[in-house]
Amino acid sequence: MDEMEEELKCPVCGSFFREPIILPCSHNICLACARNILVQTPDAESPQSSRASGSGVSDYDYLDLDKMSLYSEADSGYGSYGGFVSTPTTPCQKSPNGVRVFPPTVPQPPAQQHLLPQPSSLPLIPRNSCITCPQCHRSLILDDRGLRGFPKNRVLEGVVDRYQQSKAAALKCQLCEKSPKEATVMCEQCDVFYCDPCRLRCHPPRGPLAKHRLVPPAQGRISRRASPRKISTCTEHELENLSMYCVQCKNPVCYQCLEEGKHGTHEVKALGAMWKLHKGQLSQALNGLSDRATEAKEFLVQLRNMVQHIQENGVEFEACLVAQCDALIDALNRRKTQLLTQVNKEHEHKLKVVRDQISHCTVKLRQTTGLMEYCLEVIKENDPSGFLQISDALIRRVHMTEGQWGKGTLTPRMTSDFDLTLDSGPLLQTIHQLDFVQMKVPAAPMLQLEECCTQNNSATLSWKQPPLSTIGVDGYILELDDGNGGPFREVYVGTETICTVDGLHFNSTYKSRVKAFNSSGVGQYSKTLIMQTSEIAWFTFDPASAHPDIIFSNDNLTVTCSSYDDRVVMCNSAFSRGVHYWEMTVDRYDNHPDPAFGIARGDVLKDVMLGKDDKAWAMYVDNNRSWFMHNNSHTNRKPNHIRYRTDGGVSKGATIGVLLDFTRRILIFLINDEQQGPVAFEGLEGSYYPAISLNRNVQVTLHTGLPIPDFYTPGEGDPNGSVC
Fold first, then answer.
1. In whole angstroms, what is the distance from residue 304 CA to residue 348 CA?
2. Nearest CA-CA partner of 698 in 601, 614, 620
3. In the 8-state DSSP scheme, what is residue 70?
């Protein structure tokens, strides 16, 4: 509740609001203070659009003009307007812009009355009178109604009254002229607290007052809080109750206002409905602000811990420095004082930055908490019209205050580490040049696990520097092992913080790590990340590496070629370890073409039959027979280079299987689940892509992710057991 007190004080007199009125800019001011700061302007300076009339209120938008007061822990920050420090008795005769100030022409009502004077008792307002808001400095020209044209802020008045009652040790008499005495009774009908002398003088127990009920002050306070909601009346028509709300004017209105046509084209809604709607909006806005306040409190704890860490690190660093300097000869002693001075300056600079941030954040948190408590008290009010008079301004203030806790506000401006390193390596003759080395090797990068992933036989890694690290980085080095527990090897060196490594082994576990470097050297490694490549290879034909005559469909799983000449197409995954099996079905087969199926290097020729050059190992077939071919030689690649041909061709609907076993380094072909001859090729090493060659409208569809045939048992030397 203490933080809310600043919300309940008038910006002019600095005291609690008394009879507050709402200016069109949504700011509040005491009625007496408003009379004291009235000024008169020439007729030529009286813009009609700025008159404080009910129809002109909606034309103002002062959100950008509101200013948040900044104050330290020892200063409230609320200055007076026009030179007033307390409730003024003689107003200043000159305002800041040089225009004349009119003092009140009649005595002020007693402070204890808390009653608005009757219209007839208000001082006469000179023509073209102007009032300047002490917070946003917007000048407003008063109309014929004068200050009566501004609505009273009954909600704020109620909050102030409750706050003062909660702070008061004892209820005071409301009729004592000088120092109020402690009240002894309260009249429920008059709603006034009396001490014994004032009760005998002002409320004698005779005549009409004899029927009034006098109760103890504490009971009177309870009954006053429990009193029913006051019915607000229209400022234009005093006998009419406020029952509707004009959305455009943002003001409560009565039925007579509507009948007179002042709001004929405006959207008008029920007062109760708008009251509930705005209360809900304010409550929702407070939820976000409450979260910011909670974060701010946690942030303050973090900053205070940083102060302790800075002090501890400073002491530790200073001790280390002294130990190094004391180990040197007399020449180092002349330099030691200068080095200690630099450390202390860095120490004090860090403390000053963090303490300044603590002070600034404390001020903002205090203002935020005060606004929250004030808004919560406003929500408790059960006066719809009074609440709606200030709800828009409060909602804007809450959103604006929440925005001030935006990105970066809750981030430390200083680290607790001392980025200073004493280089004790130079020889004795260079002692006079001894100084701090400002550059350190980079800190270990942090792997961003949410962005690291594997897909098929590719791995993507992402990393970043620690959030509070201020040491410069020239580049990064990414290392992976061989997927089989072997040594690490560099796979990337550069400035990027994300890298994708292709061509890894399937069904293998890789370890990865990254380190940063700069001109001072190489930093520590990051934590090691273990990644598992896919157990089964799902791949397709690759349009990027295929001959232009190849036609793709079915998400690159089906290919065909209308050219008379053979055209080669490879798949988008390469194999170099494990056992792999895939199949292709012949969807169309006319005119006795000779399609070829097998494996190839990445630089295989694309305009000849697969197997014609030394970059491919294939089986080509017609409708009757099949041949194994490599480097334009029909052979099964045995040492004696015997040419091999086997019976059995293909037709529409036939299935060709390819089995590649790196543990035995062999390649086997199948047609319709029957092995074609013996082992087709042996002694295979390196990296190979599945590939085929087509011509004469042959159409083939690829099938991956298949188990190896039942007849085949992988070799005992298989380190992975992977099957695709």
1. 15
2. 620
3. -
pLDDT tens digits, residue range 694-708? 999 999 999 998 888
Asked, for residue 712, whether it belongs to a domain, the answer is: no
Residues 6+ apart with CB under 8 A from 650: 586, 589, 595, 621, 622, 623, 626, 656, 671
DSSP state letters, 443-462: PPPEE-GGG-EEETTEEEEE
Query: How many CB atoms neighbour CB 163 within 10 A?
Result: 19
Q: Rounded distance, CA 415 to CA 353, Å?
A: 10
CA distances from 153 to 18, 388, 510 (A): 10, 10, 71
235-254 per-position pLDDT tens digit: 778 778 888 889 888 888 88
d(CA 425, CA 415): 28
Q: Nearest-CA neighbor of 484 among 460, 501, 504?
A: 504
Question: In terms of Cα–Cα distance, which of 114, 222, 113 is closest to 166?
Answer: 222
**Class of residue 685 by CB neighbours under 10 A (exposed 0-12, middle 13-18, buried 19+):** exposed
Q: Is 430 exposed, middle or buried (0-12, 13-18, 19+ CB in 10 A)?
A: exposed
Could you tell me which residues come within 8 angstroms of residue 484 by beta carbon, excluding any fewer than 6 positions away? 505, 508, 719
667 assigned to some structural domain = yes
Q: What is the mean pLDDT of the segment spanning 440-462?
A: 91
Alpha carbon distances (Å) from 7 to 10, 11, 160, 394 = 8, 10, 9, 11
Q: Are residues 340 and 485 in the same domain?
A: no
Q: Are residues 369 and 500 in the same domain?
A: no
